[in-house]
Amino acid sequence: MDQLERELRAEHGLTLADYEILVHLSEAPERRLRMADLADAASVSRSRLTHRVDRMTAQGLVERAPCPTDRRGTFAVLTPAGFSVIEAAAPTHVAGVRRYVVDPLDPAVLDAAGGALGTVAAAIRAAAEEQDQE
């Protein structure tokens, strides 16, 4: 992870956490997410996300927009500059993941890891569904 971050920082001025936020926003409808949803997606506290979005807003990568249906809600919105940064950084990140994580592993190990992570993901989904029904 440190090597992936070093490459993103050196080539694009991004941390892995910044990259993750930009990815979530770039994949969201209208390139926007409510701050609470973005915090959940990035698995960070709302206060930590607020700090990151403040920094990214100052860099012109993200902007805030009020939620039209909830006066307390705020959207994080990917700016055109932010989208350009994620487009430029994605190949660097993907190449690093491939070089350090995928390529060194035997295909059988990758298949086993994929199966194991699929089982973990299914357990997490089941737990979330149980909580939603409560």
Automatic annotation (TrEMBL):
Every HTH marR-type domain range: 1-129
Top-rank taxon, per record: Bacteria
Coiled coil stretches, renumbered: none
Database matches in PROSITE patterns: HTH_MARR_2 (PS50995)
GO process annotations (BP): response to stress
Single annotated GO MF: DNA-binding transcription factor activity
Pfam families assigned to the protein according to its UniProt record, in alphabetical order: MarR_2
Cross-referenced PANTHER family: MARR FAMILY REGULATORY PROTEIN (PTHR33164:SF99), TRANSCRIPTIONAL REGULATOR, MARR FAMILY (PTHR33164)
Name the record gives this protein: MarR family transcriptional regulator
Protein's organism: Actinomarinicola tropica
